[in-house]
Amino acid sequence: MTEEQTITFDKNDVCIFIPVLNEEGAIKDVIEGFKNVGYNNILVYDGNSKDKTREVAAAAGARVVTQSGKGKGQAMIQAFNAITEKYVVMIDGDGTELPEEIHLLLNPVLEGKADHVAGNRIAGRTPGAFTTLNLFGNRMINWFFRRAFKSNLRDILTGYRAFTRESIQALDLKQHGFVIETEMTVECLMKGQKIIEVPITYLPRPEKVETKLHPIRDGYRISMAVYKYSRFYNPKFFFGVWSLLSFIIALLLIAAHPFIITWHGASMLGTAFFFFAGVSVLLLAAGYVADINATLHRKTLKAIQANRKKQEK
Ligand SMILES: Nc1nc2c(ncn2[C@@H]2O[C@H](COP(=O)(O)OP(=O)(O)OP(=O)(O)O)[C@@H](O)[C@H]2O)c(=O)[nH]1
Ligand SMILES: [Mg+2]
Question: Is 33 in the pocket of ligand 1 (CB under 6 A)?
Fold first, then answer.
């Protein structure tokens, strides 16, 4: 007996949302997988596929919408604005995640234990699911994210998630490409939502399905986005990175001191040292001042949310 059976709810209140682009080889199995466990409210958002994805999805019983713009992020933003169901489960349409594991993600949302549940693919990966480069890149990005956002999340880029409509519609999402998952996670933290992870099975892509992700290009964009977003959430980190770099340069200049033999060289080195040491201190101070601002913002937001909840009761 699965855990799912202990909670009573109407499965039609759950919208299964699947963004797809050229997934004719995998989408049917994904849709049927959900139907087999009783979820028939399936919404497929297609990115103008060149193959038969739309036809296959419609024949399998999903509602199919063609997104108005381009990119997975744009499809998600458009869908989130349109969804009216109480709960949303999103999954990739490439057959790498298991529909029958839906209860792992949905139960914490139904029980009110989380606003947003993310399936941790890294924890449940099967051999070949990640290429060596993808696994390394994912781990690096997650490590960087944990430092930048003082979080314990281990797979921020996962495509298998569950949330309430209320929580997703409260997020301010703008990214049209693969940075959307990062933005979504950051926004959840910024809005004080409870986000948790559960391990899920992650399978290799079926052979006929092609990845749309460019590991180097998208990895770089995502890392830059993590850094950029950290300025609002953890400014001490945002400024601290450059402060630390300047501090290291200042230390290296001191270490180089014994090797300088001319007066001119020594005075140049001294000036450079004071410059980098000064910049390091200034950046550190900027981080602390901005942190006061960010903390105040969080407190204000919390008070507004508490007030709103009180009024709703
Ligand atoms: N609607 C829409 N869906 C997209 C677009 N690009 C990708 N997708 C879908 O988004 C889901 C995730 O894309 P993938 O290419 O599998 O990316 P990923 O899972 O992050 O990366 P992999 O490790 O390569 O599987 C898949 O169902 C894609 O078909 C797009 O531009 N529009
Ligand atoms: Mg995938």
Answer: no
**b/e string for 222-240 if b means 16 or more Cβ within 10 A?**
bbebbeebbebbbbbbbbb
Alpha carbon of 97 to ligand 2 centroid (Å): 8
Query: Which structure tokens are listed for 165?
Result: 């409509």
Residue 273 has pLDDT above 60, yes or no: yes
The pTM score is 0.90
- The one-letter amino acid code at 196 reads I
Smallest CA-to-CA distance from 230 within 286, 149, 295 is with 149
Indicate the top mutation candidate among 16, 18, 21, 54 to test ligand 1's pocket, ranked by most ligand atoms within 8 A of CB.
21
What whole-number distance in Å separates Cα of residue 171 and Cα of residue 151? 18
- Among residues of the chain, what percentage have pLDDT more than 70? 97
Give the model confidence (pLDDT) of 168-187 as tens digits: 999 999 999 889 999 999 99
CA of 191 to the centre of ligand 2 (A): 27
